[in-house]
Amino acid sequence: MKKLLTVAAVGELATGVALLVVPSLVGRLLLGTELTGAAVVIGRVTGIALIALGVGCFPGTTALCGMLTYSVLATLYLLYLGIGGEWVGPLLWPAVVLHAVLTFLLAGAWCNAHYRGAR
Q1: Is the four-CA dihedral 68, 71, 77, 83 of positive or negative sign?
Q2: Is-contact 69 52, C-beta < 8 A?
Q3: Most buried residue among 63, 80, 96, 110 by CB atoms closer than 10 A?
């Protein structure tokens, strides 16, 4: 079971990284058409989610690690979008703040879990 979960986690991680780095190529290979415009942004957020899923499912990690990974990467990417200014809707900045707060809370929970485990 552990080997199967590892293979699945690595597959999701690889697909997530590919979507994050070259979403248009992944779109062309999977869907037969390149991703353009807002679809590239959505593809990258999907890639972030797949990376977090892979992290959370990797043997020896927890769902907390997966959620922390997602929240950190989503915060950074949404912040990047906001600073770039091309893709800024009315809920972008509230989403950045929400993910930043969630990242802080999840990081605190992760530190508490590791502190208790180290004792």
Answers
A1: negative
A2: yes
A3: 96
In the numeric block, the tokens 């037969």 are attached to 32
What is the secondary structure of 53-92 as a DSSP string?
HHHHHSTT--HHHHHHHHHHHHHHHHHHHHHH-SS--TTH
Q: Above 90 in pLDDT, residue 117?
A: no
Q: Tokens at residue 72, please?
A: 């950190």
Amino acid at 103: T
Contact predicate 27/43, CB 8 Å = yes
d(CA 4, CA 81): 36
Instruction: Read off the pTM.
Output: 0.91
Instruction: Tell me which amino acid residue 78 is.
Output: L
Chain centroid to CA 96: how far?
14
Give the integer Cα–Cα distance in Å for 110 and 87.
32
Confirm if 104 and 59 have CB atoms less than 8 A apart. Answer: no
Question: Residues near 63 by Cβ (< 8 Å), separated by ≥ 6?
Answer: 56
